[in-house]
Amino acid sequence: MRYKLLGRSGLRVSELALGTMTFGEDWGWGASREERRKIFDRYADAGGDCVDTANNYTDGTSERFVGEFAGADREHFVIATKYTLTARRDDPNAGGNHRKNMVQALEASLARLDTEYVDLLWLHMWDGMTPVEEVLRAFDDLVRAGKVLYVSLSDTPAWVVARAVTMAELRGWTAPVAVQVPYSVADRSVEREILPMAKGLDLAVTPWGLLEGGVLTGKYRRGGGEPRRYQGAGEPELALGDEVVSIAEELGHSPSQVAINWIRQQRDRAELIPILGARSLEQLNDNLACLDFELSQDHLDRLSRAGGFAPGFPSSFLESDGVRELIFGETFPLIDDHRR
Question: Nearest 5°: phi and psi at 217?
Fold first, then answer.
């Protein structure tokens, strides 16, 4: 395992993060405490130090397991948790991005994690109601109080993140250092706005949903009747999974490793730290083996073409030959742009 700087911070995190949404059997598809302990220890043995959880994962069991497993070596791990999702469905203030919920959710998370602080606090999902300045000032207060070291925004529109970073810089508040988004070779929508924004603002990106719930491994083609966590997969997604499987067979690696490496190798788009969501030790070992090889450019191109992604406006418009000629005349090929 190698390490990366977490966006615009100096914090070192492992190049693969460990997702813990399946830590616990409360939701019916997670794993037992014993299996989760094996997964956590194996990830740590491989050099992993970045553990991603949330206040609502498996109704709090995930955080309790993470706190227990980190245990006496707490200072070694970069523990990231999230707030936003409701803890009481009949209480309008028990969910959302506002200060009241942020403070209450963090205090409950600290108790479950059995720690005095979290390394990284994520806003989990943008609620569309809370002013950006309220979120930022509340974040800053928690950092100044020593309960949080860094802050970030998950599942939030690019314009909100960009506004938050700019406002924090201008007002001297703690600025977000990363964004978390769904990203896979089957779902590349974040390439339109979020990834260019992250690269431009030096924000790390922690992608989730790398395997589309198993669609990209070909397991639904094989049958078995296993329920899908991602219900939107149709024939195009299944066909893309077939291409992943085909490349995996050519390379002698697993489809999961191929799909993860497609994400890892999009380095020109942003600083990417994929989140592994294994449900068993066997799956984790398989996923970690993605570090043993890289895809060729031909394989990357085959997967990109099979996905059939179109960037759309404004990228397709601004990067077209006609528009570039309108802006630059005949000089565009002569300009070396180190920022691209």
Answer: -95, -5
Contact call for residues 54 and 122 (beta carbons, < 8 A): yes
Tokens of 143: 């950092």
DSSP state of 219: T
DSSP-derived pairing of the beta strands 17-19 and 148-154 = unpaired
Other beta carbons within 10 angstroms of residue 38's beta carbon come to 17
Q: Sheet containing 50-52: which strands, arranged edge to edge?
A: 271-272, 204-208, 178-182, 148-154, 118-123, 78-83, 50-52, 17-19, 275-276
Instruction: Look up residue 160 and give its two tokens.
Output: 């909100």
Enumerate the active-site residues: 57
* SS3 assignment, position 50: strand
- Whether the Cβ atoms of residue 172 and residue 149 lie closer than 8 Å to each other: no
The reported pTM is: 0.93
Question: Do residues 57 and 64 lie in contact, with contact meaning Cβ atoms separated by under 8 Å?
Answer: no
Q: Identify residue 267 by its one-letter amino acid code.
A: R
| Among the listed residues 270, 155, 147, the one whose alpha carbon sits nearest the alpha carbon of residue 208 | 155
Strands 78-83 and 3-5: unpaired
Asked if residues 216 and 238 have their Cβ atoms less than 8 Å apart, the reply is: no
Instruction: Give residue-wise pLDDT tens across range 92-133.
Output: 999 999 999 999 999 999 999 999 999 999 999 999 999 999
Please tell me whether residue 187 adopts helix, strand or coil conformation. strand
